[in-house]
Design brief:
The complex is a heterodimer of chains A (461) and B (447). Chain A is an alpha+beta fold and 461 residues long. Chain A folds into two domains: 2-240, Cytochrome Bc1 Complex, Chain A, domain 1 (2-Layer Sandwich), CATH 3.30.830.10; 264-460, Metalloenzyme, LuxS/M16 peptidase-like (Cytochrome Bc1 Complex, Chain A, domain 1, 2-Layer Sandwich). Helices cover 40% and strands 17% of the residues of chain A. The radius of gyration of chain A is 22 Å and the shape is globular. Chain B has helices at 2-15, 69-76, 86-95, 120-132, 138-155, 159-172, 185-190, 193-203, 219-231, 279-291, 297-305, 336-353, 357-369, 378-390, 397-406, 410-420, and strands at residues 28-31, 37-42, 48-56, 99-104, 108-116, 209-215, 253-257, 262-270, 312-319, 322-332, 427-432, 443-446. In chain B, helix 2 (69-76) crosses helix 8 (193-203) and helix 4 packs parallel to helix 9. Classes of the chains: A alpha+beta (461), B alpha+beta (447). Chains A and B meet through helix 3, strand 5, helix 4, helix 5 and helix 11 of A and helix 1, helix 3, strand 4, helix 5 and helix 11 of B.
């Protein structure tokens, strides 16, 4: 088979996440154990996590803030991400652009990304430059002073970013429509990059106000992974972050999404589409909402249902019935708001009725007859093996720890993860499947090319 | 002023490139009992092994009318081998959490395997089976064929892919470098099982493979496993000769009209091959022009000053038998002419006026200081081992590489800039509804 994820929609790579616009699904705690992570709290409320990784003389330094697109307000969508851009535009001590230029002059790479739930900044540098990057991040944590004459051009940059990411891509434009249809009130309905009309209005005052409401040491987690000694990192952190005063951080209130009472469906035709796509997502527990008891079982279930080319769906739908070219599932639970248990397929034709029925049959069979002992073992082994694979990448670990902790999980949660996976039983899976695979809690999205026979076929009931 | 302090700290820090606790990358050349050669970096930090390998000859060696064959074969190599059909083979991999993928570029057909060290023996056995006895069962062939068609359709929705495809086709003409590595609907449809077997028979040979291994394994054990995977391959490959080539253009700009709000632009000119004596100089030059992330001249002019694009970048794209220097940008239709004008001005300015001493220093500090970042994961290191072998750079290359960068002089950069950066030589493909294009550039339209 061709490498999954590279080709189709599954977002599994650091790159996919780092480019910012994704609700972090795959980077959520797919792994962690025996990482020997050191966890410190500074007096001002800043959390520091240090993991040693001595493969190369490098270090990844990340600052994660507990603020994201869901903390924006009406008419100012895209503000969290806009501020992320403007964080490179000067402080009371640094010129606009000087941050990244200084990193580059030190052989480092830096960037940032904004999610619905969080915002993160990172530098990958030689390990002996850690103090430099810490001093700079500490500076912009409290001293941001955006140069006014940089704002207009940067707003244009973000508008171009939106065009590149969303408007030029029929599938991304469709994903945006789907999110808006999936949530009635929860802010996940709003795109992280922002609606075009809102983007035009974003200004310096908005950004500085948002910054003052949410940035500060007591709303940040610093993650350091690499060729370092934890006690030395702690000393540096105390020197640079520890001296900052805690700030008043605004309350985060996100209206809860009510229970849905009927299955939703969005069929969209776009003249640019050449390859149809089909997906369905069920509302599911997350680390922030819902019944967390089911989370490990749903991770195993997702692996069994659509985790690879030996999964139930792939064998039945692609290999046996030839209704799709690819099919799979993923479970996004590392979020503050509702999680999703999602299925996707690349249909062989624009008539997706048989495909959908086939997928529903596979789910019905699991609900009726459960999974096999062999499937259960393979899925657990695959998930626990991913813990070892995850240890290979310092950057990957920094992302896993940051994304998990910023949404309220603990080091202990991550360390215990393999045990929770190993403990999942046949009955747990059945219970979790019954809890989540409920039609009324689902939305099905179908993206199609225009139909010559039915030119006005739009959103079906 | 803290700003000053930070800046001077940066310069000081750049001088001391010491590591704290990490081990150096120690490469061993392993020759197996069966004569298979691999480069190994033993590292027991994590109980896993990464293997990267490549066979010479990729999409450019696909037969006439069969473009995409190498890519097609790559998609089938883990779809059944020996006694195991596709599902049985994949089950063997999944049961052991072995990750095995193949891919094909223009010049190589490559593989990537990761396994927990406890499953190493099975992993290398399964790999060997795939290389010696791929089944190419009809069922799997048709499934992967449909997957490639779907990928082609999906890519035909993506402006960047469309632009790159036109750029290569129009620049290389009939030379196979003009073909998409994934072929076309027609060429993929024309490929038969015999064509696939021929790729295996002709290219999978001991004198045509480069292997890099990193992880929790010693040289002796690796030798035995290498034999299980590779030793039974034929001694010599029988590759299709490909002529060296260069690019040409009929007009300066090709416009692919598409109803989208933003124009995507791919541009490029003659570059240089990896073996070119000017290689490191060109790396430095490119960093200054458009390779240096937020620090490049193009990012400064196009993004920061004018807000014309989210990103603009340039890169060297060496192939075995041609060199390319490429770049891309995406700007709203109404202002894309301005983007192109700014980029052309910067290209001309660098060619005419060269770079400054400060830019040279900054480029060197970045390029040398960031080199260790390429060694962050075992598969990345294994990939480096293969790349160093491919270009015959020698086992001590990792130690010497930064010396090559540091040896580049201002005069060399300015000479190479004059060599590569001739604005009239650049060819631009634009997908969108561009407005305000420079009037001195000739245009053609494509579908």
């Amino acid at each position: 088979m061709l490498r999954r994820g590279r080709l189709f929609s599954k977002l599994t790579s650091f790159a996919a996440m780092a480019v910012a616009m994704v609700l972090s699904s795959a980077v959520a705690p797919q792994a962690a154990s025996n990482f020997n992570a050191k966890d410190y709290w500074l007096d001002n409320g800043l959390q520091l996590v240090v993991i040693e990784n001595h493969r190369a003389p490098i270090v990844t330094h990340m600052v994660w803030y507990r603020v994201g697109a869901i903390d924006e307000y009406e008419g100012k969508s895209g503000l969290a991400h806009f501020l992320e851009h403007l964080m490179f535009k000067g402080t009371s001590k640094m010129e606009p652009g000087e941050f990244s230029k200084t990193i580059a002059k030190n052989g480092g790479q830096d960037n940032a990304f904004t999610s619905s739930d969080y915002t993160a900044y990172y530098q990958n540098v030689a390990a002996d430059r850690l103090e430099l990057v810490m001093s700079m991040e500490a500076d912009r944590m409290v001293n941001l002073d955006i140069a006014e004459d940089e704002v207009a051009a940067e707003r244009d940059v973000v508008i171009e970013e939106r065009r590149s990411r969303v408007d030029n891509s029929p599938s991304a434009a469709f994903r945006e429509k789907l999110s808006a249809a999936r949530y009635d009130v929860h802010p996940y309905r709003v795109p992280i990059i922002g609606w075009p009309e809102d983007l035009k209005t974003l200004n310096r005052e908005d950004a500085m106000g948002f910054y003052k409401s949410f940035y500060g040491p007591n709303n940040a987690i610093v993650v350091v992974v690499g060729d370092v000694v934890p006690e030395e990192v702690l000393a540096l952190a105390q020197k640079h972050y520890g001296v900052l005063e805690a700030r008043e951080i605004a309350d985060r209130f996100h209206p809860p999404e009510p229970a849905h009472t009927e299955a939703r469906r969005l069929v969209h035709r776009d003249p640019r589409v050449r390859q149809p796509s089909w997906n369905r997502s069920y509302r599911a527990p997350s680390v922030g909402t819902g019944n967390k008891v089911h989370i490990p079982a749903l991770e195993v279930l997702s692996e069994i249902v659509g985790g690879g080319s030996t999964s139930r769906l792939y064998r039945q739908i692609v290999v046996e019935d030839k209704l799709a070219i690819d099919v799979g599932s993923y479970y996004s639970h590392g979020r503050l708001g509702p999680g999703t248990f999602a299925l996707y397929a690349v249909p062989v034709s624009t008539d997706t009725a048989a495909l959908e029925a086939g997928i529903e049959d596979v789910l019905a069979d699991i609900l009726e007859n459960g999974v096999t002992a062999e499937e259960l073992e393979r899925a657990k082994h695959s998930l626990t093996a991913s813990v070892i694979y995850a240890q290979d990448s310092g950057r990957g670990l920094a992302n896993i720890f940051g994304a998990s902790l910023v949404n309220g999980q603990t080091i202990e949660d991550l360390e215990a993860w393999p045990d929770h996976i190993a403990a999942v039983s046949y009955d747990d899976i059945l219970a979790a499947a019954k809890h989540v695979l409920v039609a009324e809690q689902s939305i099905t999205g179908i993206l199609l090319p225009p139909s010559p026979e039915q030119p006005d076929a739009g959103d079906a009931p | 002023m803290i700003r000053r302090v930070l800046a001077s700290l940066a310069v000081l820090a750049a001088v001391f490139m010491t590591s704290t606790k990490s081990r150096a990358v120690e490469i061993q050349e392993v020759v197996s009992p069966g004569g298979v050669i691999a480069w190994l970096v033993e590292d027991n930090t994590v109980p896993l092994i990464s293997v990267e390998f490549e066979f010479g000859g990729g999409g450019a060696e696909d037969p006439e009318g069969k473009a995409g064959l190498s890519y097609f074969v790559a998609g089938l190599l883990n779809e059944g081998a020996g006694d195991l059909d596709a599902q049985a083979y994949q089950t063997q991999l999944d049961d052991r959490a072995i990750r095995l993928y193949f891919d094909a570029g223009a010049d190589t057909l490559s593989g990537s395997m990761q396994t927990l060290s406890e499953n190493a023996e099975d992993a290398f056995d399964l790999l060997g089976l795939a290389l010696r006895e791929p089944r190419f069962d009809t069922d799997a062939v048709e499934r992967v064929r449909e997957q490639i068609f779907a990928i082609q359709r999906r890519e035909s929705e993506q402006p960047r892919r469309i632009a790159a495809k036109h750029w290569l086709k129009n620049s290389f003409g009939e030379h196979p470098y003009g073909n998409s590595r994934k072929g076309t609907t027609e060429t993929i449809a024309a490929i038969k099982r015999d064509d696939m077997q021929q790729v295996v028979d002709q290219r999978f040979a001991l004198d045509n493979v480069l292997i890099g291994v990193v992880g929790d394994i010693d040289a002796e054990t690796l030798g035995l496993l290498l034999d299980a995977a590779f030793a039974d391959l034929p001694e010599e490959a029988d590759r299709r000769p490909i002529r060296s080539t260069s690019i040409s253009k009929e007009t300066d700009i090709t416009i692919v009209s598409k109803d989208v709000p933003q124009s995507t632009v791919v541009f490029g000119t003659k570059g240089l091959r990896r073996s070119d004596p000017d290689w490191y100089t060109a790396i430095v030059m490119n960093y200054v022009l458009g390779g240096g992330g937020f620090s490049s001249r193009l990012m400064e002019e196009v993004r920061r000053k004018r807000g014309l694009a989210y990103g603009v970048s340039t890169y060297l794209a060496p192939r075995d038998r041609a060199g390319l220097y490429m770049g891309s940008v995406a700007t709203q239709n109404a202002r894309v002419g301005e983007s192109i004008a700014v980029i052309r001005d910067e290209i001309a300015r660098l060619a005419n006026d060269g770079i400054s001493e400060e830019e040279l220093t900054d480029a060197k500090t970045y390029l040398t200081g960031s080199y260790p970042l390429r060694f962050g994961t075992s598969d990345a290191i294994a990939g480096q081992l293969v790349g160093i072998q491919r270009y015959g750079l020698g086992m001590n290359f990792i130690d010497r590489r930064n010396d090559y960068i540091n040896a580049v002089t201002l005069e060399q950069v300015n000479r190479v800039a004059r060599r590569l950066l001739q604005t009239e030589e650049f060819y631009w493909v634009i997908v969108g509804q561009p407005e305000g294009l420079p009037e001195d550039l000739t245009q053609s339209l494509a579908n």
